[in-house]
């Protein structure tokens, strides 16, 4: 399983990160380094890990890390907005502002962790937990809300595509709001990313917005297949 | 709550409407429910209604005219401003909440992610309005 590696020289920020991991990502192992040099000494252990670094450490920073591991995806955290522009020009980098909001970091982590998990181990997109609460044993209602959600998801995706093409960021935010609900109802696990786009959509985040769209676009056909299979079944699946 | 009077729901998301209806049905709400999908339709409903609704349940994030814009209009109307409005939203944005209370709402409910909690919230809403009614 991938680990998350956080390079941060500020002890308070490290503590906040550890708290965030405990609350939101307790199933993912992580490791903190307090300087670039200590990470560099151990870098060979982390070629397959998700890297998060403060932009400016006492002995290096994101630029040195990119030079050290040029083909590695990277989450950069900073109190200034300049790395955000750097990130928008480099699809391998994403940016989280300091002070780090839990949702923003959660979204950035999801950005890396979820697609990787999807491509390897995730068998189902849909998690019926919420809908089972809602529908109970009422298969007719379950089918109805699943098919309605699917139809709405298709509309939301089409609207998001149009909004992206028109660089209509208000429209993008609105679609992300809708997709957040779809994700919640269908148990897709994309709420944090949807919230990040809903809250922050702007020209600086075009790369992230496009990736967010692709995430749903690529998931749509498998989701459709799963819903059709559930609807075709005679009973509510376990 | 006067059980014969309508509850007006402003909600543009069909799935959310299904969820709210489901909860109301399971909680034995007896009031007729009228659903419109944005503020413009809400205003049109109020203009044409022969009797004002007992309660308005309002989503914030809607196309055309959003919940806050709708609130600002009805709270300037001589009669409509008397209708109790409860915001029901997924928005945790403080500005949305502040704007809604500035416009004179009776309550602001953030939809829980858990359906059983959502039902408890709707049940509390029903009990509160029953209590308010019993005081009249």
Number of helices of chain B: 5
CATH topology of chain B: Rossmann fold
Helix content of chain B: 40-55%
Q: Which strands sit side by side, in order, in the main sheet of chain A?
A: 2-1-3-6-7
First-last Cα distance of chain A: 27 Å
Chain-averaged pLDDT of chain A: 83
- C-alpha-based Rg of chain B, rounded: 14 Å
Strand arrangement in the largest pleated sheet of chain B: 2-1-3-4-5
Provide the gyration radius of chain A in Å.
Answer: 19 Å
What is the SS-derived class of chain B? alpha/beta
Query: Structural class per helix/strand content of chain A?
Result: alpha/beta
- Which blocks of ≥5 consecutive residues of chain B have pLDDT under 50? none
CATH class of chain B: Alpha Beta
Shape of chain B: globular
Greatest interface (CB-CB under 8 A), with counts per chain: A-B, 17 and 14 residues
Q: In CATH's first tier, which class of the largest domain in chain A applies?
A: Alpha Beta
Q: What summary fits the major beta sheet of chain A?
A: 5 strands, parallel
User: What is the average of the pLDDT values of chain B?
Assistant: 87
Q: How large a portion of the residues of chain B is in β-strands, by DSSP E?
A: 15-25%
Largest sheet of chain B: 5 strands, parallel
SSE pattern of chain A: EHEHEEEHEHEHHHHHH
Could you characterize the architecture of this molecule?
The complex is a heterodimer of chains A (238) and B (136). Chain A is α/β, with parallel strands linked by helices. Chain A has 2 domains: 4-120, 3-Layer(aba) Sandwich (Rossmann fold), CATH 3.40.50; 129-232, Up-down Bundle (Four Helix Bundle (Hemerythrin (Met), subunit A)). The two termini of chain A are 27 Å apart. In chain A, the strands form 2 sheets. Chain A has a 5-stranded parallel beta sheet, sandwiched between helices. Chain A has a two-stranded antiparallel sheet with strand order 4-5. Residues 114-122 of chain A have low confidence and may be disordered. In chain A, 60% of the residues lie in helices and 11% in strands. In chain A, 37% of the residues are buried. With 136 residues, chain B is an alpha/beta fold. Chain B has a single domain (7-135), classed as Rossmann fold. Helices cover 45% and strands 16% of the residues of chain B. Chain B has a 5-stranded parallel beta sheet with strand order 2-1-3-4-5. Classes of the chains: A alpha/beta (238), B alpha/beta (136).
């Amino acid at each position: 399983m991938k680990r998350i590696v956080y390079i941060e020289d500020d002890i308070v920020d490290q503590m906040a990160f550890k708290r965030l991991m405990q609350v939101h990502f307790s199933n993912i192992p992580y490791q903190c380094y307090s300087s670039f040099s200590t990470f560099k000494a151990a870098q060979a252990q982390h070629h397959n890990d998700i890297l998060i670094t403060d932009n400016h450490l006492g002995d290096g920073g994101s630029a040195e890390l990119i030079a050290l591991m040029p083909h590695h995806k990277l989450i950069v955290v900073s109190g200034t907005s300049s790395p955000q522009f750097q990130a928008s020009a480099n699809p391998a980098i994403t940016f989280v502002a300091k002070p780090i909001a839990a949702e923003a970091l959660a979204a950035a982590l999801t950005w890396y962790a979820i697609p990787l998990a999807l491509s390897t181990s995730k068998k189902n997109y849909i998690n019926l937990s919420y809908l089972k609460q809602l529908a109970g044993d009422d298969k007719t209602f379950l089918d109805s809300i699943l098919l309605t959600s699917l139809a709405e998801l298709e509309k939301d995706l089409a609207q998001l595509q149009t909004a992206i093409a028109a660089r209509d960021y208000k429209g993008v935010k609105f679609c992300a709001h809708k997709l957040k609900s779809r994700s919640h109802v269908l148990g897709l696990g994309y709420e944090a990313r949807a919230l990040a786009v809903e809250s922050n959509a702007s020209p600086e985040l075009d790369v992230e917005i496009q990736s967010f769209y692709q995430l749903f676009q690529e998931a749509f056909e498998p989701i459709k297949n799963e819903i059709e299979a559930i609807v075709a079944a005679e009973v509510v699946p376990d | 709550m006067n059980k014969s009077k309508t509850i007006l729901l402003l909600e543009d998301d069909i799935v959310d409407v299904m969820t709210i209806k489901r909860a109301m049905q399971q909680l034995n709400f007896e009031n007729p429910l009228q659903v419109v999908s944005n503020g413009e339709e809400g205003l049109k409903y109020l203009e044409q209604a022969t009797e004002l609704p007992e309660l308005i349940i309002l989503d914030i994030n809607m196309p055309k005219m959003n919940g806050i814009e709708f609130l600002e209009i009805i709270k300037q109307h001589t009669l409509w401003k008397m209708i109790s409005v409860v915001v029901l939203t997924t928005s945790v944005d403080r500005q949305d909440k502040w704007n809604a209370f500035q416009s004179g709402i009776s309550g602001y409910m953030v939809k829980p992610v858990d359906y059983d909690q959502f039902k408890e919230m709707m049940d509390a809403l029903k009990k509160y309005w029953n209590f308010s009614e019993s005081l009249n």
